[in-house]
Structure formats: structure tokens, C-alpha cells
């Protein structure tokens, strides 16, 4: 009986993980998510799921890569509060790619914060700084740099159609 309770709890946590990724990707609840890693650990106190070793999360046309992802839940709920992706973080959607050493998705605030030499690319264009905050609900981003070091953006001219 206890084994079934543990399995039900693990399933609820995994469903919550999928729901959180749906929010990040901007996809609908009907789209499946696949998370693969070399190891997955479900922890009950504090409640979280840790994916480690070549983590790949896919949903629709969005793919997130990291060496480790930690999914944190609200106290006493099956609701995700934040997701921390660590080491070689890369988020790819079509021509757009965001990279950094760490990325945190804050569900309530609807933001993703990339740190550790973060860059966001679209084709050959890119922006970089010390911290890049993406406001998912507002479709805007803020690039911050430490004092004395400027944020940087490179934009290439668009090729003319023949």
C-alpha cells in the first residue's frame, strides 16, 4: 500500500513538472513533454525532482538542455514554484537559442533569469551581458551587466530578397 502511495506521489510530481514546462514554452496543456536524463531522483523533503546527466526536455518546437535540472514545488502542493537548470544551459526554439551556465524559471513571476555568460541568439544576431531576464508574459527582455562592463548586442543587416 505504501508503495502505491509513493508511486502516486511520483506521478503527481512528474505531471507538475510537465505543466511547468508547458508554461515556459508557451505551449498548450495538450502537448506532451519528454524529459530524458541519465538519472532522475524524486525527493519528498523538500519536495523536488532532480534530473541529472545530459538532461533534455522537449515540447513541441522547444528543447531545453542542461547537465542538471531541479524542479521545486510549493509547500504542501503539487504546483511547481521554480525550475533551476544548471551547467551548460541551452534553450532552442527554431532560430532562437539562449545559453548560460544557469537558468531559473520563476513560475509566479513568469520570468526566466539566465546567468553565467548568458547570450541570446537569433540567427547571426545576439545579445549578451551578466544577466538576461526574459519576461514571458510581456514579451520583453532586460540585459544587465556589472559596473564598468557594457551589455553588448550585435545585429547584422538583413539580406535583401532577389
UniProtKB/TrEMBL annotation:
One of its GO terms (cellular component) is cell outer membrane. GO terms for molecular function: glycolipid transfer activity. The keyword NAD does not apply. The keyword Signal applies. Keywords: Signal. GO terms for biological process: lipopolysaccharide transport. Residues 1-27 form the signal peptide. Transmembrane segments: none annotated. Residues 34-139 form the Organic solvent tolerance-like N-terminal domain. Coiled coil: none annotated. This is Lipopolysaccharide export system protein LptA.
Amino acid at each position: 500500500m505504501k508503495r502505491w502511495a509513493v508511486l502516486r506521489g511520483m506521478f503527481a510530481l512528474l505531471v507538475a513538472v510537465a505543466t511547468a514546462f508547458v508554461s515556459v514554452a508557451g505551449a498548450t496543456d495538450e502537448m506532451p513533454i519528454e524529459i530524458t536524463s541519465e538519472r532522475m531522483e524524486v525527493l519528498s523533503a523538500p519536495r523536488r525532482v532532480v534530473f541529472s546527466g545530459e538532461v533534455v526536455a522537449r515540447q513541441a518546437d522547444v528543447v531545453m538542455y542542461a547537465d542538471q535540472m531541479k524542479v521545486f514545488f510549493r509547500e504542501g502542493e503539487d504546483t511547481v514554484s521554480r525550475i533551476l537548470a544548471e551547467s551548460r544551459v541551452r534553450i532552442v526554439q527554431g532560430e532562437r537559442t539562449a545559453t548560460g551556465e544557469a537558468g531559473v524559471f520563476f513560475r509566479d513571476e513568469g520570468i526566466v533569469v539566465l546567468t553565467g555568460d548568458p547570450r541570446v541568439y537569433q540567427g547571426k544576431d545576439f545579445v549578451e551581458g551578466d544577466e538576461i531576464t526574459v519576461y514571458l508574459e510581456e514579451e520583453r527582455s532586460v540585459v544587465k551587466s556589472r559596473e564598468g562592463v557594457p551589455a553588448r548586442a550585435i545585429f547584422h543587416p538583413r539580406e535583401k530578397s532577389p
